[in-house]
Write the structure tokens for this entry.
Amino acid sequence: MQSLLNLVETLSEKILEHYEDKLKGIVIGGEAIDTFDEKKTLLILLVLDKVHKISFYAREEIAEYFIKKIEPLESYFEYVKKYGQRPLLYFIILDPSELSFHNPIVLYLLTNGKVLFDKEKLIEKEVKKVNVTNINGVLKLSEINKGEVIEL
């Protein structure tokens, strides 16, 4: 797990160097963190100022730009050599105003992720707003009859 975390640390440093004051937060989470298995998916939530007008496609290009920055590193090469694949790093890039939309994947990261950087405590404040209760089951709409009343 340490080799993946080292890559994420280097990646985070490069993002911070590039964006400086525009970077508001970094949160990591996902299956790699939950299972301590560095071959699994790692989600990276970046909170960047002034990306609300940028398309999701362009945001993914930002992510690929930083992946390209770490590809020449020896630690990246060692990871690929060890596992036979590039690290499964997936980015979610949001504007600070978009944190409050509470998309399911963002809620997951806010409640289960590890905060690496939170410059203005935006992430901490948003976590306090989130009220998630443990649900023991999944509601399947296909199993509900028309007109049936369901207690949630």
In short: The mean pLDDT is 88. The longest strand covers residues 23-29. The first helix runs from residue 2 to 19. DSSP finds six helices and four strands in the chain.
